[in-house]
Amino acid sequence: MNRIAGHYDNGLDRNPANYAPLTPLTFLERAASVHPNVWAVIHGEVRYSWSQTYARCRRLASALARSGIGRGDTVAVLAPNVPAIFEAHFAVPMAGAVLNAINVRSDPAIVAFMLEHGEAKIFIVDTEFGVLAKEAVSNLRAPPRIIALNEIVHPEGAAALAGEQDYEAFLDTGDPAFAWRVPEDEWDAISLNYTSGTTGHPKGVVYHHRGAHLLALGNTLAWNMGRHPVYLWTLPMFHCNGWCFPWTLAAVAGTSVCLRKVEPKPIFDAIADLGVTHLCGAPIVLSLLINASEADRRPLPRRVEVMTAAAPPPAAILQAMEKDGFHVTHVYGLTEVYGPAVVCSWHDEWDELSPELKAQKKARQGVRYHVLDDLMIADPETMVPVPKDSETMGEVFMRGNVVMKGYLKNPEATREAFSGGWFHTGDLGVWHPDGYIEIKDRSKDIIISGGENISSIEVENVLYRHPSVLEAAVVARPDDKWGETPCAFVALKDAGKDTAPEDLIAFCRDEMAHYKVPKSVIFGPLPKTSTGKIQKRILRDRAKQLRAE
Questions:
Q1: Which of 408, 443, 478 is the last residue of a domain?
Q2: Which residues sit opposite 260 in a β-bridge?
Q3: Same structural domain for residues 402 and 351?
Q4: Are 339 and 375 in contact (CB under 8 A)?
């Protein structure tokens, strides 16, 4: 339908005085000018204020530009949570380029695919992953230029990167007064994030400046962050650009406390010694904290805000976190929506509920972020919304400004993901009468046993209530009679060494309908992604092998 011009259109055009493309880069400039002396980054003995961080980012952007990097070029980074990857979140797009932060737990073949598919021109590599990087680029037709990050020298990695330019030396070639500009179009790409690729090659999810700006602000609203929070990086910055928190922290002039490895002792030490107020992580991070040894623990000097997502957190873990002095905010999202886009927004009256009921409320994914335009659960075929009855299952759909541009060089997958004018998440859930959604499973994780749908998450939540269970994952195991039956993979706490599979099966029979009870329980460590998600694809393969045996 053609838009008819009216008197509100005549002589009221956009101009530089009343319109500027949205970009999170302006948050950095503001933090440096308004709060120049507030610490932006703390990493061991290294400390940079916001004015120093701004200068370092401008130097990096300038050095990239002098190396021929410009609009639409890709700069890849392979590094843990150290200052350089934080700086790259600003400097790379300040040069007009696109940041591709790569999962450090990827294998060489996957890293090579990402570099080639994204056409990376420069590759910033921490020496800890020097061997991985060199193997990845060894067979590329057009290998990127490598910049070596010698933040902590790892002998093998350093040897592999010998002869490559040092990151700090590269910064020295840049101008701290570099005259960067905001993008001409807020739809310009700001970053490239690859999905975990459960089948075939991972897909390259493209973010734009507008979405990154809005999601960064959405985080502050959803989490009520205020001014100058001290944020501990227990979430990888390579995962959905750290859920956009590098840009969020610039918006609130907060402090980033970097952490190379996620372990209980340094987390508790940072909280006690550095004034940490906020941290993010998958439920595995929460499990690390509540199961930490007394030797690793420190008393919490204040309530610590924790944002969790990835796999739906079991209510038992949420309850234990609250008991230990952490205040948990549950969010939900995907790589395709810049990280978190749904939040379990709390109601004051829920404070009066019992701890068990509060944890059940908090285990729900919730309602849309302020910056997500729409959210629904609907029939995946007809896209008709399901009733808000807490029972009818449907697929989760989203749309709005914080949905990706699409999949890089994959128009067919992009069209499929956006079919019908909504983003298809592939997650299944129910809609509650109060409008809150609750994820029940990924579509591929639903177990169909004897014609009945079984939510693997429901079974896992029951298992987590057993005092001996540290971690649990339930998948389908092929069965000649029932088609599929639930198979539980369980990691036990030390205190559960005398627990037998039959004990957990009996526990489940007392807690749920018998057709949902696992028919088999396998003990042992669970395979995980770098962000703490349990790799159910691997477990499904194991379950199939168990059937064959």
A1: 443
A2: none
A3: yes
A4: no
435 and 465 inside one domain: no
Q: In what order do the strands lie in the sheet with 145-149?
A: 165-166, 145-149, 120-126, 74-78, 98-101, 189-194, 204-208, 406-407
Residue 341 lies in a domain: yes
Q: What is the CATH number of the domain that holds 83?
A: 3.40.50.12780
Total tally of structural domains belonging to the chain: 3
Report, as ranges of residue numbers, the positions in the chain whose pLDDT lies below 50: 197-199
- 250 within domain boundaries: no
- The answer to whether 472 touches 489, Cβ cutoff 8 Å, is yes
Span 457-472, pLDDT tens digits? 889 989 999 999 999 9
Here the tokens at position 42 are 């703390």
Q: Is 468 in the same domain as 519? A: yes
- The half-sphere exposure of 186 on its side-chain side, counting CA atoms within 13 A, is 15
| Residue among 415, 404, 416 at smallest CA distance from 338 | 404
Instruction: Please tell me whether residue 180 adopts helix, strand or coil conformation.
Output: coil
Range(s) of the domain holding residue 472: 447-548
Inter-residue contact 325 to 268 (CB < 8 Å): no
- What's the CA gap between 124 and 91, in Å, rounded? 12
**Domain-embedded: residue 254:** no
Q: What is the pLDDT of residue 212?
A: 98
The angle formed by the CA atoms of residues 94, 97 and 98, to the nearest 5 degrees, is 115
Residue spans of alpha helices (H) in 187-239: 209-223
Residue 199, pLDDT score: 43
CB 143 within 8 A of CB 108: no
93 & 131 share domain: yes
Residue 104 shares a structural domain with residue 191: yes
- Res 323: pLDDT: 87
Q: Is residue 241 part of a domain?
A: no
**Phi, psi (rounded to 5 degrees) for 160:** -65, -30
DSSP state for residue 528 in the 8-state scheme: B
Cα gap 457→475, rounded to integer Å: 10
Q: How far apart are CA 194 and CA 103, in angstroms?
A: 9
Q: What are the start-end ranges of the E strands in 480-523? A: 483-492, 520-523
Looking at the DSSP bridge assignments, the partners of residue 124 are: 77, 147
Domain boundary among 443, 473, 490: 443
Give one DSSP letter per residue of 278-329, joined into a string.
EEEE-HHHHHHHHT--TTT----SS-EEEEE-SSPPPHHHHHHHHHTTEEEE
On whether both 438 and 457 belong to a single domain, the answer is no
Tell me how far the alpha carbon of residue 220 is from its chain's centroid: 16
CA distance 254 to 257: 10
d(CA 287, CA 324): 12
User: Are 289 and 347 part of one and the same domain?
Assistant: yes
Q: How much is the pTM?
A: 0.85
d(CA 437, CA 178): 46
Helix or strand holding residue 334 (H, E): strand 326-334
* 3-state secondary structure (DSSP) of residue 508: helix
Domain identity same for 53 and 138 = yes
CATH number of domain containing 520: 3.30.300.30
List the structure tokens of 61. Answer: 């952007």
Separation CA 27–CA 247 (nearest Å): 7
